[in-house]
Amino acid sequence: MRCYWDEEDTWFYFEVDAEGWVTRQVELEGPELIPVAAASLAEWQRARDAGHLDEYDSRFGVTAELPVSEWEGHDPEQLTFEEFEEAWACARRQIMSRLI
Known about the structure:
Blueprint: E1 2-5, E2 10-16, E3 22-29, E4 34-40, H1 41-50, H2 53-60, H3 81-98
Antiparallel strand pairs: 1-2, 2-3, 3-4
Helix pairs in contact: 1-2
């Protein structure tokens, strides 16, 4: 699914599990759709367990902390798996290229 937040001119792309928890999240800002986050809950948990959470957060961001069923005031568009994967892959590539 994806949602647009006009106050920040940001598109949010979400992959959610069967219980509604966000497993991966992409954030694209501005008219250029610049990736500012491409976070995976599983990666975040591994980084936390390894003591590298600050590093992960600063590079990739975080996923939403509540399941989508508890969100207020959003009107998500449904995406196909392929549409999400395309946004995810592009965002990760761009974020990773900044680290070099």
